[in-house]
Amino acid sequence: MKKLFLTSICILSLAACGSLDTKSQSGLKGDWIITKVSYPGSEYIKVTSFDMADSKCLEGSSWKFIPNNNKGTLSIAKTGCPSFSSPIVWTVTKEGNFTLKITEGEKAKRVTHGYFLKMRNQSESSFQLIDNVEVGGKNVEVVYQFQKI
């Protein structure tokens, strides 16, 4: 019975790991910046990104992704915007979903709030994260364009 239980645990663990896209994750290794944030009506309407700042404040923000432990950091230091820096925990699924937790010094398991985005157009030097938000009663895509530095 004990062997059956341990075997079941191992199979479940492998299945959980199998749902991650390790190729996409390893392609994110390194330092990145957000070069542009765009969405329909962005010249007239403000969107708060990740419950922390105006989306345009993320332009120029620095991101570091470490794929072997799915951790990293993000930093905002744009003039006229709140200064912010935090560790992050992230994953990419085979379906192209990107999950993000901004941990702000807490252990990831204690952070109950996260963000689910879509990852698109990944290359060696760039990729996009897409967030669906409601703006003026309509669902719009906010596109975060990342460039490797």
Automatic annotation (TrEMBL):
InterPro entries for the chain: Lipocalin-like (IPR024311)
Cleaved signal peptide residues: 1-18
Keyword Translocase in annotation: no
Key words of the record: Signal
Boundaries of every Lipocalin-like domain copy: 28-107
Identification of the protein by name: Lipocalin-like domain-containing protein
Organism lineage string: Bacteria, Pseudomonadati, Bacteroidota, Flavobacteriia, Flavobacteriales
